[in-house]
Amino acid sequence: MKKHPIFWKTLYASVLLSPTLLFAQVIDKTPLPAGAAAVVNGKTIPESQVQEALKATGLPPSDQLRSAVKSQLIARELFRQQAAKNAALENRPEVKKAMQEAKDAAMIQLYLRDAIKPPPVTEEMIREQFNTIISSLGPSEYKARLIQVEDNATAQKIIEQLKTGSDFAQLAAQYSVAANKNNGGELAWVSFKLPAQEGKTQNLPLPVAQAIAELTPGAVTPVPVLWNNQRFVIRLDQLRPTQIPQYDDVKAALRQTMERKALEEATLKLVGDLTSSAKVQQ
Questions:
Q1: Where is pLDDT greater, at 78 or 9?
Q2: Digit-coded pLDDT (tens) for 260-277
Q3: pTM, whole model, 2 decimals?
Q4: Fold of 138-241
């Protein structure tokens, strides 16, 4: 299969990103037991389990990541409890052979297989998604780097160091607070229609996208770009005409991605239905 980075970058931004399994309402405000991260229908999820799951992600700790991980553990416990109510699942040969932890996992998998029925992805839906992605692309693709800092003084200091020949990647590793700092501040290839509009910049903040579009290859933003109380120093590395893939080259992979998205949405709905009748402390 031919690779088309812009196409898949756009797809991930518009299709693959799904809402985190967050619960809109905490039903029970009773204080949690010591060492507990949540209590689901009387079953405690220990804080140690949350910490272990956070560590397993390999991502920098944040409140958002912790909330997502805890929500996933709550969802898993809800699934386990529902699966445990079905005696037929427990008597399946593959469940009987498992130890308790593996038994829970096997029962959850069987329960989810029976409970989650995402709608089929049709050829018409795939073609429509393909056309939507293609229509969102601009005439050019941009390969840029950025350094994100929290104050003007640091941003201006970086710009001055770049003027004297300092290496952008090294400065990114030294100063940036962005997740890509150890990758030299490198961004994926991106394309968007001009002039850049809010919500149509492939997940880039609008001021960042606007700044990228105004640069020539090798140029650095002369002043820090301000967005959300953060400052960005941006360099455009490469510029090229947008590469449009053929539908047949990406159809199979696009179907797979859309089917995964449909499964995620069906799972979210099931979690919401179970949560609405569950007693959850967190």
A1: 78
A2: 999 989 988 988 888 888
A3: 0.57
A4: Chitinase A; domain 3 (3.10.50)
- Distance in angstroms (rounded) separating the CA atoms of residues 145 and 171: 11
Residue 12 has pLDDT above 70, yes or no: no
Contact (Cβ atoms closer than 8 angstroms) between residue 74 and residue 89: no
The yes-or-no verdict on residue 28 having pLDDT over 70 is: no
Can you give the residue ranges of every domain in the chain? 21-84+116-121+258-281, 138-241
- Dihedral sign of CA atoms 255, 257, 263, 266 in order: negative
Q: What percent of the chain has pLDDT over 70?
A: 87
Rounded Cα–Cα distance for residues 182 and 60 (Å): 13
- Structure tokens that stand for 115 in this block: 């409970």
Q: Could you read off the pLDDT of 110-155 as tens digits, one per residue?
A: 888 888 899 999 999 999 999 999 999 999 999 999 999 999 999 9
DSSP bridge pairs for 250: none
Cis peptide before 60 (omega within 30 of 0): no
pLDDT at 202 over 80: yes
Strand pairing partners for 190? 142
Contact 220, 159 (CB under 8 A): yes
